[in-house]
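Q: Can I borrow your eye for a moment on a structure tokenisation matter? Would you mind producing a protein record, from residues through to fold? Write it directly below this note and I will take it from there.
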Amino acid sequence: MALFQRAGLAAHKSSLRLLEAYTSSAPLWERTLLAAYVGLGPPIARMFGGNTKTVWQQAETIIEDLFAVSGLRAEAIVAALRHYVQLKREIDHHLPFEDACELIYAQRFYPLVTHFTFALQSSAIARMRFVQRIAAAMAFRHATVVDLGCGSGAMLCNVLESKPGWSGQGLDISRESVEYARRLATYKGVANRAHFQQGSIAELPFKDRSFDLVIASEVVEHLPDVEKAFSEMTRVLAPGGFLALTVPLESHTPAHLNALSSELQLYEMFRRAGLKVKSLKSKWHLTFGDDRRHLFAVAQLEEQEELVNDRFYSFAPPQMSSAASSGIISS
């Protein structure tokens, strides 16, 4: 508590409650890292022109939601999170898909983990902001969006909160996650516009050309058949619609079956699926337990497909306003 006060973070009571429960069971080295993050993070960020207060404000909102939706005490949430971390430490190889379903996706801790990552994991925060920017730029007053591999449902709920005229679908292989996401949607006041169901991305239970925005954030690396997943995502995307996709590079997480090594690999997947890449870039993330580097991509299903030849393609992302003339993206 004293450390939080010195860092100017004492007002974030839910975050403090969870971190106090965490430190009571964490080994010394983890407590030391946490103290350094809380105590040294704000002044170091200010030196580089950053501000950690916005990060902690978002973390507070996520953790408040986590407490409300799970109905669990801080100690139980910490135990669930530590269970997953321990599993990652013990398994040093990629699990077969069926084993990942049994050991991870079917477990009660899974939606808690996927929700909590949006609080303090830098890559998850970046993914949420990435999808927020894409949704904000889309000019449709009314649109349909689907979040594939939706986990806790936090990302879809966030989009629907910011877009009151939109409706959405969430799909996940995990029944625990689907049930959790439904509760979160009710808590966030978007349940009348959000529908969550269990299912496979390899066989999407949606009609052709159903969605204006398809979100696939940190999901394709979990799948045994990536080409089939891209085919299905393209099938349900409406002409002129957008696919927002993120994926880690060179990941060693046990549940990840596929590990991309370059931007070119992902670009080729888009090309084979008949999608035109609008932006593709990588970012480094060095927080504890995170994959080091992630790709952030936006692709579009054009109404008249433009054939892409084997020529040089710049991965520097164009301005989103460059698509304003089509009426799909607002400038």
About this structure: The beta strands are 144-148, 167-172, 194-198, 211-217, 237-249, 276-284, 293-300.
